[in-house]
């Protein structure tokens, strides 16, 4: 019976020989395989049948990222089409998942249709074509498809963590590049039994009501007080969480006139909220407090910086639906954050808590803003 186990030094000769037969022009060296055994940033496993090496995988991890790379997956030719490749792939995914990797990525030659079919059947998606990626070879094409899979998936049940754990929060993709806040609010409204009859029209109406932030270019964005005001007017129970009592997000605005406008709008929204008894709490609203609110049946809209995800420092509203010991699960309304993922796959998107903590906050002073939402049981 075939078994998969961590590679040891006594496996190196067989692995190197199989590698040389499979990739004669571009074989990984025996020395490199030995390093994979020793490296804390690699998982190197072999597939044994009657104590003989008939396959192997290597998964590499990069420090300070949530990306794992499937560097090698090989099955001996006479043992292919027997399910061994799938077993190795699933084992590699499990290892990457155990390390809390968010994505597993690999490169497959465009001529390797069998490999592509295996990856596609296991949920990998093509995100890029790299020309002349592999060296010239008689065994495969030089061009490669970059394939990627989102590893952790949220599953409801006894170990589902806290938050919307019994019924999924509906997913809505924003219809414009500047309405992430309104789209997040519309998802919460739907979950709490107040769905919009015309989401696209109401998305723009909420944006019109809640816009407070000047962008470097294009349309403005929505601030927490404006979104809280819009949520309250639509029948939800609301609380605003910020970490400063100073005007929010004015540091990046150079013109004094624009700063004044932002401050006036924020003050008007705050005055409205205070008049109607909507709490505005000033403190460091962190993951522990978020989990407490989720456990009480709330959903939480948070403003994050997308730098941790795409390298661009842009403010972006997302809706936190659930959390557990390892991940914050968000509904991300933006189709550009993970363009290779479908809307369904951006529902309950797992973000490692360490990554979320870095992303939660915007600007040089890392100003935090959140809108805590729940059903208002006093209204119908």
From TrEMBL:
CDD domains per record: NAT_SF
Record Pfam families: Acetyltransf_1 (PF00583), DUF3335 (PF11814)
UniProt KW keywords: Acyltransferase, Transferase
InterPro entries: Acyl_CoA_acyltransferase, DUF3335, GNAT_dom, YpeA/RimI_acetyltransf
The N-acetyltransferase domain, residue ranges: 2-152
Gene3D superfamilies reported for this sequence: 3.40.630.30, Cysteine proteinases (3.90.70.10)
Gene Ontology molecular function: acyltransferase activity, transferring groups other than amino-acyl groups
Keyword Transferase included in the entry's annotation: yes
Domain of life the protein comes from: Bacteria
Name of protein: Acetyltransferase domain (GNAT family) fused peptidase domain (C39 family)
């Amino acid at each position: 019976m075939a078994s998969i186990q961590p590679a040891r030094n006594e496996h190196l000769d067989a692995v190197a020989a199989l590698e040389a037969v499979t990739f004669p022009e571009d074989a990984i060296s025996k020395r490199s395989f030995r390093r994979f055994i020793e490296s804390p940033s690699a998982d190197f496993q072999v597939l044994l049948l009657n104590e003989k090496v008939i396959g192997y995988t290597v998964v590499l991890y990069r420090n300070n990222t949530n990306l794992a790379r499937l560097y090698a997956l090989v099955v001996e030719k006479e043992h292919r089409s027997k399910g061994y490749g799938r077993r190795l792939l699933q084992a590699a995914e499990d290892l990457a998942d155990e390390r809390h990797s968010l994505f597993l990525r690999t490169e497959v030659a465009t001529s390797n249709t069998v490999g592509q079919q295996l990856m596609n059947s296991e949920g990998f998606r093509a995100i890029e074509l790299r020309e002349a990626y592999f060296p010239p070879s008689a065994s495969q094409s030089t061009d490669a498809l970059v394939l990627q899979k989102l590893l952790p998936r949220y599953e409801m049940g006894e170990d589902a963590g806290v938050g919307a754990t019994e019924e999924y929060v509906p997913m809505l993709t924003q219809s414009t590049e500047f309405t992430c806040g309104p789209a997040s609010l519309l998802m919460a409204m739907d979950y709490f039994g107040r769905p919009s009859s015309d989401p696209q029209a109401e998305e723009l109406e909420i944006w019109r009501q809640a816009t407070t932030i000047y962008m470097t270019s294009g349309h403005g964005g929505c601030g927490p007080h404006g979104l809280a005001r819009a949520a309250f007017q639509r029948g939800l129970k609301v609380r605003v969480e910020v970490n400063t009592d100073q005007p929010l997000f004015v540091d990046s605005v150079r013109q004094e006139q624009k700063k004044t406008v932002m401050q006036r709008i924020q003050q008007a929204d705050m005055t409205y909220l205070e008049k109607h008894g909507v709490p505005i709490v000033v403190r460091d609203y962190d993951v522990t407090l978020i989990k407490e609110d989720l456990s009480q049946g709330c959903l939480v809209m948070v403003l994050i910086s997308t730098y941790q995800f795409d390298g661009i420092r842009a403010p972006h509203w997302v809706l936190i639906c659930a959390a557990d010991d390892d991940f914050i699960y968000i509904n991300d309304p933006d189709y550009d954050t993970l363009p290779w993922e479908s809307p369904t796959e951006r529902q309950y998107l797992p973000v490692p808590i360490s990554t979320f903590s870095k992303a939660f906050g915007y600007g040089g002073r890392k100003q935090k803003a959140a809108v805590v939402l729940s059903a208002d049981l006093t209204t119908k």
